[in-house]
Amino acid sequence: MSTPTARIAELAAHTGHVVTVRGWVTHLRSSGKIAFIVMRDGTGLLQGVVVKNQVAPEVWARFSELTQEACIAITGEAKAEPRAPGGNEIQVSGLEVIGPSPLDYPIQPKEHGIEHLLDHRHFWLRSPRQVAIAKIRHEIEQAIHDFFYERGFLRVDTPLLTAAIGERSGLFSTEYFDEGNAYLAQTGQLYGEAAAAAFGKIYTFGPTFRAEKSKTRRHLTEFWMIEPEVAFNDTHDNMRLQEDLVSFLVERVLERRQAELAELERDVSKLKQVVRPFVRLDYSDAITLVRRKGSSAKWGDDLGAEDEALIVADYDRPVFVMNYPKEAKAFYMKENPADPRTVLCDDMLAPEGYGEIIGGSQREDDYDKLLHRIREEGLPEDAYGWYLDLRKYGTFPHAGFGLGLERTVGWICGTPHIREVIAFPRMMHRLRP
Ligand code: 4AD
Ligand code: MG
C-alpha cells in the first residue's frame, strides 16, 4: 500500500501515521548529525527532522544537496511539535527531490529593493507576507459575494470591451473589427443601471481599467471593482448599504484571518473601531475643515489625497464626504434638490490615511437633465443613447457605488502601497511579469 499524501494544514489528522508531504524548501539547517528542513506547501509550514544514523545514506546525501526553493517530497511519521515552525513535524524516513532549484534563486533572506521584488513577483508571491495578503484578499472577495448573496442581490457580469463610456479618466483602446475602437471598461456601472431595472438589486465584480498617469500608492491601471446598483435606493440608502458592507468585511477578516493579520503586524485595534454609523460630512464642511488645517482647496475642487488625509485624521472610522459640486464629479450623478450646485453623491474615506475606497451616488433619473449634462461634458451622445433610454422607458430612482477592491484590501491589511495586494499588479511602468 502506498503512503498517503497530505497537505500541511491537514497534518493534525495524520498524527502518529506515516505520510508524504510535498512542498518547497524555505530553510535548511544541519549539525552534521541531525538536520532540519523547513518547507511550505501554501497551506502551512512544516519541519522535517532528518537524523543521519536513522536514515538510508542516500536520503542523507539528498539532504546535503537541498537548496532553498527546491520542490521536495518528504515521508515520515507526523506529530504535533509546538516548537517547530508551523507547529508540525515529520520524522523523515524518505526524501525525494521533485524539482531542484539552483543556488541563485532571486529572492534571498535579505532586504531587496521594491523594483527587484516586483520584477520577481512570480517568486515574491511565495513569501509569508504575500501569502497572508492573498488570503485576506480572498477572504474579502468571498465575504463580498456572501454579503450580496444573503441580501438577495443578483450578480451581473458587465462587458470589459465597451464603446466610449465611463468615467473621466483615461481610456485604453484597441481595434475592434469594423466597429472602430473598443475601450477597456473603466466601470460596469452604466450596464449595472440597466440591469437594476431588470433585476432590482444587482452587483458587479470585475476588473476595470484606467489609463491614468498616476504614480501614487493607490493607483493601478487595472484594478477590481465591486459595483452594486439598487432600484429605489436614494443617496441615504446607498450610504447605509456602503457602511453595512464595509463593516461586514472588516468584521469578517477580524474573525477569520487573525493569523494573517498577525503575520502583517496589523494593528487590529484600529480595525475594531470600524463600527456603524460612519461619519457623515457635507462637502462644504469638509472644505472648511481642510482649509482650517492649512489646505488651499477651495469650494468646487475635487479633494486630493492630502485633503482626504486631513479629513480622516479627526476620526477613528470611515468618513463619508457627501454632495460634491457638480463640476467635480461624473455626469450621471443626480442633482441635489436642496442645492442644485451639488450632486447626491458620496466618497467613503478609509481611516488611517488610506483615502477614498468607495465612490457612490444616486443617479440622475430625469431624461432632460441627464441629456443636458452629457452635452455639457461634450460626451458622444450616440454612445449614450441606450443609457438615456433607461430614463425614457420607466425611469426610476436608483443609486449605487463602486468599492475599489485593492484599496479596501490595502487598508485592511495596512500595506503602504496597493501594488502588493494584487497578484500581478499593472501600473503605468509595469506590465511584467
Ligand atoms: O470613484 P470611482 O471612479 O467611481 C466609479 O467608477 C463609479 N462608476 C462607481 C459607481 O458608482 N458604480 O471609482 C470607484 C472606486 C474608488 O473609490 C477607488 O476605490 C477605486 O474605485 N479606484 C481605483 N483603485 C485603484 N486604482 C485606480 N486607478 C482606481 N480608480 C478608482
Ligand atoms: Mg471617485
State the order of secondary-structure elements, H for helix, E for strand: EEEHEEHHHEEEEHEEHHHEHHEEEHHEH
Query: Based on helices, strands and strand pairing, what is the structural class?
Result: alpha+beta
Discrete helix count: 13
Mean pLDDT: 96
Described by strand count, sense and barrel closure, the largest sheet is: 8 strands, mixed
Helix content range of the residues, please? Answer: 25-40%
Bound molecules: 4-amino-1,4-dioxobutan-2-aminium adenosine-5'-monophosphate, magnesium ion
CATH top level of the largest domain is Alpha Beta
Low-confidence stretches: none
CATH superfamily of the largest domain: Bira Bifunctional Protein, Domain 2
Whole-number count of domains: 2
How large a portion of the residues is in β-strands, by DSSP E?
Answer: 15-25%
Q: Can you walk through the features of this model?
A:
29% of the residues lie in helices and 25% in strands. The chain is of the alpha+beta class and 433 residues long. The protein folds into 2 domains: 8-99, OB fold (Dihydrolipoamide Acetyltransferase, E2P) (Beta Barrel); 121-420, 2-Layer Sandwich (BirA Bifunctional Protein, domain 2). The strands form 3 sheets. Strands 6-10-11-16-15-14-13-12 form an 8-stranded mixed sheet. A hairpin with a 5-residue loop joins strand 8 (173-175) and strand 9. Helix 4 packs across helix 6 (235-256) and helix 4 (128-150) crosses helix 13. The structure holds 4-amino-1,4-dioxobutan-2-aminium adenosine-5'-monophosphate and magnesium ion.
